Amino acid sequence: MYKEIAVLMNMTEDEVRFSPHLLVNAFDAEHKVLFWNARCEKYFGISEKEAMGKKLEDIVPRVRNNKRMVHLERALSGLPVYLANGKYEKEDGRYDQVLFPIKDAGGKVVAAVNIVIDLDLVKTVYRMPGLESWLN
Question: Residue 77 in contact with residue 69, Cβ under 8 Å?
């Protein structure tokens, strides 16, 4: 799935796997982890090996009965979700998040991809003129 996500994001597989400012994961209809990048490992403290194939709510119990599960279910139903300027629970900083469905050739939703963009790190890394006002 790394290759497919990289193509969708117009990035290389290594950029998706190891980006310090993109938390990227993907889940099947049963919430089992299909993709878990290095930023996920850092944020959740759970390795890719530990996460793969396990249900999100089993490896990150705090998401049970949480609005995040509602967002995941919405993406798994075929509707994209965009959340702007969220605040991290476990660390300082802000993020934008998008969850979107992945469909098979027949149009059936088979997974959902979750991408969290670390806004504070993006500002630090890129230092683009005008970025501060755009992100705030």
Answer: no
